[in-house]
Give the backbone structure.
Amino acid sequence: MDPYAPTAQDRFSFGLWTVGNPGRDPFGEPVRAVVSPERIVQKLSECGASGVNLHDDDLVPYGSSAKTRDTIVASFKAALEDHGMVVPMATTNLFSHPVFKDGAFTSNDPRVRAFALGKTMRAIDLGVELGAKIYVFWGGREGSEADACRDPRTAIARMREALDYLCEYVRDQKYALRFALEAKPNEPRGDIYMPTTGHMLHFISTLAHSEMVGVNPEVAHETMSGLSMAHAVAQAMEAGKLFHIDLNAQRIGRYDQDFRFGSEDLRQAFLVVRLLEGTAGGEAYTGPLHFDSHAYRTEDDEGVWDFARGSMRTYKILHERARAFDSDPRVLALIAERRDARLEALSSNYTRAKSEALKVESIDVGAVAKAGLGYERLDQLMVEHMLGVH
């Protein structure tokens, strides 16, 4: 039995827009045929995934009649049931239609903002109908090229107003749904408001129903601006706000590449899996593991499913490698926390007496500074575990 073969228990999911991508790019036409949502469900099930996610327009083409919408949704729901698949997450396309050329929730035109809210509420209804428990917001057009077009503070206020409105809608409908905000620094706008997970975490704290809203960090989006995805995930987890995650791969400083997970920067991929799985002792993430990525444009239909299987397989291999690394006695010795009960007591839970004692505490900083920490050995051990030497 292949220990790296994905199963439904692994909670892996893909979007209709990921494995359904026909290979179009800004410089070339599609290289693959469009695949129906029902076939995507079937093939992902065969590959070992348990979930499939979608934008509203991925499933129901924009402008469809109510009758057409209901027919499409019924067929999709039947495919989900036939293949034992679920929809963990849904989202709204607020970036493709020309009306969103200057934003959706942040647009200067109240007609656009109203249209965006209506479209989102209809899409939320669709997501809930399909069983989604997480609703992701990626503000692909919420930004600017000519910054003088609006005060950025106005854009933030409009985003807050929209999220508060939609939280109230979900509460009023009694939907069991949480929101996850997805940050990105740029593309398709020159600059996108709230460009990192850290920005989003602060913004969430200003919402009327912040308990309903978390984040959806993406490897490519953090990496584009040269940041550590592992640090972003850790901050979200520490705040109790990691509601969803997008796994892929990216080179620093490039356009949004959405490569197969682990195909670039295996070190960051390893560290992210280590965090998510809690192999170092921290609390593990138990939500969906979503691959927001695309097969290379070089691939035919079979290559798309090779891409899907490879994404999941790499995650499971890295999970095994992380378990081995975090149980290695040499690693445990190198990262063992130095303890000093007296100094720790003085440094926690402030009192005036403790502060006065710390100010006069005699610490041999010269000796502390001279001591090596062994991080070269630690890092080499990590590399060797990743390479399967241990």
